[in-house]
Amino acid sequence: MPTTTAPVTDVVDRLERTSMLDPVVNGLRSLSQKVLAPQGVRDILHGVWLGHPLHPMLTDVPIGAWTAAAVLDVVPGTGIGAGTLIATGCAAAVPTAVSGLADWSELHGPHQRVGVIHAAANVIALGFYTASLGARMRGRKARGKMLAFAGFTAMSAGGYLGGHLAFRQAAGANHGADLPDLFPSGWHDLGRLDEFPDGAPAKRTVEGVDLLIVRRGQHVDVLSNKCSHLSGPLSDGEFTVEEGQGCIVCPWHGSTFRLSDGGVEHGPATSPQHRLETRVTGGRLEVSLAGE
């Protein structure tokens, strides 16, 4: 049977492919990379310290506050409650937007096209809510409610696009989470130890699962080769040393992982790489899932 999609999903799918947004995307990406240049700042905004992206968590505050305000606006006798919630949402929208900008700047083109419209909808929502606050402060409550409901509509559109980014385009998801389900049990031969270059990344595949191998003398580290951020091939990346730790840098967006445990040293990735157990038997390197 032919597959069908909902009309709104079809519109967003076309949005991913439209090149008319690219000048805006390129300009905003260049600006964000300049403004958010320090790596430490970017790591905080990505949520490296948190273990998953910071932006989705921050969105709960403006969305929750503005939704609650909409409820209060239809309930008589709630006083200044709606205005207080709207002000809270407006204040929270700023750090939420900055963290989203940091994540957005490290995505692929189709993600960024949808993300630009997502951001535009939220900027419009913030404008309506700010205007609503102004109207309420001048005693124009009816106009304040009307503007707030317009903001709620724009926020809902932005929220839908945010959901599309997260769940359909998998922006922010852990792209390496399936390795334990895909990798076969037991020990598997990868080749002679001396076949692997010293101090340089290499790749081997075990039953369709790509692995990163980095040998330094007799010591070998093996990680999942698919970057947890957006599936970049780590074996095409660069070996580096960060604070005395051997690391691999993803060639796509610069995510940096420690070889010793697969942990994230720098974002945009927030999820660690799976690290496999290794042993050398008769001069040959073997690997298995950790903990087997």
What does this structure look like?
This protein has 292 residues and is α+β, with helices and mostly antiparallel strands. It folds into two domains: 7-168; 179-288, Rieske [2Fe-2S] iron-sulphur domain (Rieske Iron-sulfur Protein). The chain contains eight helices and ten strands. It has helices at 7-17, 22-35, 39-46, 54-73, 81-104, 109-137, 141-168, 179-182, and strands at residues 188-192, 201-206, 209-216, 219-224, 238-242, 245-249, 256-258, 264-266, 275-281, 284-288. The strands form two sheets. The protein has a six-stranded antiparallel sheet, with no helix packed on it. A hairpin with a 2-residue loop joins strand 3 and strand 4. Helix 1 (7-17) packs across helix 6, helix 4 (54-73) packs antiparallel against helix 5 (81-104) and helix 6 runs antiparallel to helix 7 (141-168). The radius of gyration is 24 Å and the shape is elongated. The two termini are 43 Å apart.
Brief descriptors of the model:
292 residues; alpha+beta; Rieske Iron-sulfur Protein; 2 domains; six-stranded antiparallel β-sheet; four-stranded antiparallel β-sheet; 8 helices; 10 strands; 18% strand
